[in-house]
Design brief:
InterPro entries: Prot_inh_I78 (IPR021719). By secondary structure, this protein is an alpha/beta fold. 12% of the residues lie in helices and 27% in strands. The chain has one domain: Trypsin Inhibitor V, Chain A (2-Layer Sandwich), CATH 3.30.10. It has one helix and five strands. The protein is globular and about 30 Å long.
Amino acid sequence: MPLVVPGITSSGGDNKTNDWMNKLMGKNLGNTTNETTFAKKDLPKEHRIVDSDGGMMTMDHKPDRLNIHVDKDGTVKKVTHG
């Protein structure tokens, strides 16, 4: 799991995005939360999971929607809002 240090390895900007990035980066999504997994049930209502390798997604902008970009093995690589 990659080391995430707020303000150093995460970009500046929106605090809610940074908070989610710190919770999710390097983890997989699953049914329970532990050191390597984050429970899907604990995600905000407005979220979508996107394939980082060019997965398609709609272009509608919803500022409160959490976008979770995952790689082929399901590891979270990027978190954005919109």
